[in-house]
Amino acid sequence: MMQYKTKPSVTRIMNLLSPIIWLLYIELLNGWTLPKLFRYWFSGEADWFILAFHAYGFMLLCGLCFVCRRITGDRIGNITAATIAAIFGITNFCVLSITGQPFVFSDLKITGTAFSVLSAQSLSKGEVLTLTCAVLFWLGYCIAVWLITAKQVWEAKSYLLRLLPAVLAANLMYFGVLVSADLADVVLLFDGHHKYGAIAHFVISGGVGLDFPDDVEHYLPQKDTDIVSNFKPNIIIVMNEAFSDLQKTFHLEGNMDAIPFFHQLCEKYPHGISYSSVRGNNTCSTEFELLSGVSTALTAKGATIYESNAVPMQTLVSAMNARGYETVGIHPYYRTGYNRDAVYNALGFDKSLFMDDFEDAEYIHGFISDKSNYEKLIESYKAADKPFFCFNVTMQNHAGYDDDGNLSDKVTAETNRDSGDALNNYLTLLHESDKALKYLISYFESVEEPTVILFVGDHQPMLGKSFYEEQIGKLLDDFSVEDVSRMYEVPYLIWANYDLDSAAAPEQTSMNYLSEVLFSVAGMTKTPWMEMLSEYRLEYPIVTSNFMRQGKGDIVSLSVSDTLAEYQKYCYGILWGGGRS
Q: pTM for this structure?
């Protein structure tokens, strides 16, 4: 029989308080304040369904604390559980602060990419202060536990029996989460981490992956192999890192237009707004939607497809291969990022170029510049001996925005929040991208072969919630779906050295439809899958992970109708049906 160094009642009080303390700790780092959180829980703002998720998070913490104590004793057990909870809370806080999106289970699969992305970012002074307080609280808690908690405890069977129902309930709820796609569709929407609790949101994201229906083989679109097209223009798709038109979207006053050449092109060539499913990071989701026509909203909410499904499938790349194009993928960063090297090979690119393929490149802001990127693109075009298809994802404007690359043309915009410096640095970098775009277009204006270029941003930059709260004039908690949509819009432009069908370019669309839009505008023969996408686009012109639009109606939260359910099955067919066209 072990003896206590302190009274058993002190130890038991600490044991009971531990999961409560760390639930509050995690939620405070998740964006709540104590008054708002208690009002949310106890005043009726949150219904029983929402409270069940918060209760689920609490029960998981109870189970964590109990297991740690049973293995190592009260003192080390409480410290171990506190450390695990603190690491989760701080990680979620940092990811939220830097990317604007919560920590999800799939982030664990891309640890290398995540560190390379996050290491380039910086926190605001207020965020650093919050982080410091969080670390000091954890340290103070551990010291207090060490001083007042017993080293060993009695083997109390009644204590086990009291906690066992909570642990069992947590596991039962987890099982229910895993088998219910409807719950994931609800909880993993925009701001779901805040509404349903950080712990439940994280666990549910782990139960979501690339599942597929039993009859998926019946929903594989016809391949492109039987299509004969005599018109084969060179096709270049530039997905420019964090390219957006914040000055127009949020009516920002500034000393100059950040992207004057882009706006000049918009006066002459088809253009519009494309809504992304991501903001600030996770470019690979945007890449995949554009190349495949598959909506990640309907197939992979909470998952990273590039990490989960590096297998051959029908995409724009395979269609171009079938039509006799030379296909080249270019990304001037690490080939291991988001598993791109393996994915590009599986998608069927004839050649993939990454950062280690660039010699004597110019660097701006710590990344290969857009101009050096386009020089490599032009070099690849010159080396091609058949029609040229290139998919290029740039890097110059990647976050963080604590410097502007020492560029001479400084762009400034008026803002009252601490995002001001980051915003101005971002706009200055964007201005340099605009110059590089002029270089690219100027070159292909002199090319005799028919050439079409789709230029689009992958997502808006990482500027933090304070920027959006200032521009929209509300707290993030009060954003409407329409307000949220403004955080995900990026411009697209289609340029060519021949006449285009401008009427075929929608004012607003989403990334999963852009390849079909490109073929419509450029006058190219569509693949069978693109013909289907054009029909889906007529009924649902916008489909993203956070919202959708049906017909000419308002932007609303995502919900799956019969038509979208059919589209979803074809998306799964492409993902899992096998084979390349």
A: 0.78
